[in-house]
Design goal:
Blueprint: E1 19-20, H1 21-28, H2 32-41, E2 48-50, E3 54-57, H3 59-74, H4 79-87, H5 92-95, H6 98-117
Amino acid sequence: MLEPSNNKELPPIPAKRYFTIGEVGELCTVKPHVLRYWEQEFPQLKPVKRRGNRRYYQREDVLLIRQIKSLLYEEGFTIGGARQRMNGHTESATSASPVENADLMQMIRELEEAIDLL
């Protein structure tokens, strides 16, 4: 799983098995209503629900939430784009950074020019 760059600024995840929605909100600096919304939008995010529909998140859920937050807030993805990225439905060129995409396009243009010369 990807570790977003902002995780250095976030508090470390304690060695616990389950976290409440309030604890996860503090660990990821996201409000609880946002976490509930993301549960609807990202099928990978499925916290355990116990008595009274109380949510209990595991460490993997916290890491997933941090990745979603990074995609949305740092990398500028839309909800749909982040969902596709999480599902792995992106092409290799779109998952590259803008600089890598520019370099790739430049190489393609140069190759096409070389083919035209031949």
